[in-house]
Structure formats: structure tokens, C-alpha cells
Amino acid sequence: MDPEANPRSRRTYRSLGLGAIHYITQTNFQDLAHGLERAAQDTHYLLDDFLKTDTAGQPSLLYLTVQPGTTASINLAEYLTVNAPPVPLIVDDPAEMKQPLAWYINNLRRGLGTIIHLKRNDIQSNDEFNAKYALIAGVAVGLDVPH
Hints:
By secondary structure, the chain is mainly alpha-helical. It folds into 2 domains: 7-43, no CATH class; 52-142. The protein contains 6 helices and 3 strands. A 3-stranded parallel sheet has the order 2-1-3, with helices on both faces. The longest helix has 17 residues, at 126-142. The protein is flat, with a radius of gyration of 18 Å.
């Protein structure tokens, strides 16, 4: 990331809760090349940490909801908790707390499927919120989680 980047870009990155994933600050190609060389020498791979975690337990459905609740998200949550077949439901409610990336990956790996509810464009802070959930959706696809 260019250190002169828009402060909003840096805030958005920090808001995603990706503390385990770092970026290289660069002002030119040489900074970037040196950062990549240093990273290549690191024998610790973040994905290895996630793949070593225990995924035992009952398969569940992961639902990433929105706050404030929309009519659609409220109706879906009610359906999933009251009317749907008895499937354990894990809900990520952004009003409660921000989960680390490892939490999402571990729940995706043991999941029966994932429902990701994105915010409409006219809702405040939708960019940061949707960016995070889009990343989680990409991870779900990469892990072959049903969606």
C-alpha cells in the first residue's frame, strides 16, 4: 500500500479485521520488491495455521447478517431459527463483535453452507462492510463451501 494512499483506504483495510494478513508499504517498485523478498523468506504460512485448527463438531450453517437489520435479514433470521429444518446455525452479528479471520475460516470449513447478507449501496458504511463479507465469500468459494 502506498503510504500516501487515501486515509479511507487504510481505515477500510483495518476495519476488515485482517490483523493476521499484513501489507507491504511501498513508495516505489524497489520497496515492493524488497518487501516481497522478505516475505518469501518467511517460512510461516498463515493458511497452515488455519488448516491445523480443529473442525470437528456438528456441521452448521454460517449466516453473516447485517446491522441494522433489514426486513429481508430479519425475516431470513426468523426463518432460519424457527421454520427451517433443524440445522445448527452460527450467526455473525456485526453488532455484537468483530470476529477475526480465523473464526470465519474455521466456521466455513465445518459448515454445511454459508449465507452472506450484503448491505445496500445507500446504507452507511456499506463499503467496509461489503468488502469484508465479499472477502469471506471468496474464501468460502476457495474452500468449496456450499453457498
